[in-house]
Amino acid sequence: AQTVTQSQPEMSVQEAETVTLSCTYDTSESDYYLFWYKQPPSRQMILVIRQEAYKQQNATENRFSVNFQKAAKSFSLKISDSQLGDAAMYFCAYPRNTGNQFYFGTGTSLTVIP
Amino acid sequence: DSGVTQTPKHLITATGQRVTLRCSPRSGDLSVYWYQQSLDQGLQFLIQYYNGEERAKGNILERFSAQQFPDLHSELNLSSLELGDSALYFCASSVGGLASEQYFGPGTRLTVT
Predict the structure, then answer these.
(1) Can you list the positions of beta strands (E) in chain A?
(2) What is the pLDDT of residue A102?
(3) What confidence tens digit (pLDDT) does each residue in B46-77 have?
(4) What is the pLDDT of residue A111?
(5) Would the CA dihedral through B3, B44, A73, A62 be positive or negative?
(6) Which of residues 21-60 of A touch B (CB under 8 A)?
(7) What is the mean pLDDT of residues A93-114?
(8) Which segments of chain B have a pLDDT < 70?
(9) How far apart, in whole angstroms, are the C-alpha atoms of residue A75 and residue A97?
(10) How many angstroms separate the CA atoms of A90 and A21, rounded?
C-alpha cells in the first residue's frame, strides 16, 4: 500500500530564515509525481510545488524548492527567506497511478516567528 | 482563487439528517475528487468522478454518495448524519491525467449537532 509520512507535526522558523519540511513515501511505482500543498488558516488548499519522479532536477518555485531523493523515497520542501505569510499547514501528497486520487501526509504546522 | 467553487460554505444540521454539498470544477477540468478533512483523520480521499463516471472510491461510507452531472458539476450526498461526520469537505478538480495537479475549492464546513 502506498503511504505518505510527515514526521514533523510542528516546525518553526525565524522570518527570513530557511526551513525544511520532511516527507517520505512508500511506493512500488517507478514513475510518479509528488506534490506539496499549503493550507493557511483560511483552510484553502493551495498547490505549492510539483516534482516528477523521472526528472533528476529538483523542482523550484520562487522561494520554494524540493530535495527529491528517489532511492530514499524522500521529498523534502525547502522554504527560503521565510515570510509571515508562509505560516500554514503543509501537506505532502502522492497520487495513486490508478486514478490520480491523492494520498496525503498528516501535515506539518509551520510557524514563522517575526 | 483556484476556480473551483463549492456551496454552501457552512452547513449546520442535526444527527439523522441528509445534506447535499455542491461543487463546480474549473473550466475544462473533467475530474472531480471529494476529500474529507477531520481533526483526527487528516485529509481522506472519498470518491472520484471523471467526465460523469465514477473512477475510484476511497474511504467513503455507504451513507455517502456522489454523482457528476453532464455539465461536470458534482454533488456529494451525506445521509443519516452522525456527529463524527462533522468535518471540512473539499472538492478538487483536475484535467484528469496522472500528472495532473488538483485544484481545491474552499471547502464546505459541515457541523452535525
Answers:
(1) 3-5, 10-14, 19-21, 24-26, 33-39, 46-52, 60-61, 64-69, 74-79, 88-95, 102-104, 108-113
(2) 85
(3) 999 999 999 888 889 999 999 999 999 999 99
(4) 97
(5) positive
(6) 32-33, 35, 37, 42-47, 50, 52
(7) 86
(8) 40-41, 97-99
(9) 18
(10) 8
Beta carbons of A98 and B56 less than 8 Å apart: yes
Q: Side chain identity at A30, as an amino acid letter?
A: S
Residue A95: asked if its preceding bond is cis (omega within 30°), the reply is: no
Q: What residues in A contact B99, CB-CB < 8 Å?
A: 33, 50, 52
- Rounded Cα gap, residues A31 and A95, in angstroms: 11
Amino acid (1-letter code) at residue A40? P
| Chain B residues inside the 8 Å CB shell of A35 | 101-102
CB distance from A68 to chain B under 8 Å? no
Determine, for residues B42 and A107 on separate chains, whether the beta-carbon distance falls below 8 Å: yes
Instruction: Output the DSSP codes for chain B.
Output: --S-EEE-SEEEE-TT--EEEEEEPPTT--EEEEEEEETTTEEEEEEEEETTEEEEE-S--TTEEEEE-TTS-EEEEE-S--GGG-EEEEEEEE-SSTTPPPEE---EEEEE-
Binding-face residues of B in 28-87 toward A, CB within 8 A: 31, 33, 35, 42-43, 45, 48, 55-56, 58
Q: pLDDT digits over A24-82, tens only?
A: 998 877 778 899 999 999 999 999 999 988 887 899 999 999 999 989 999 999 999 99
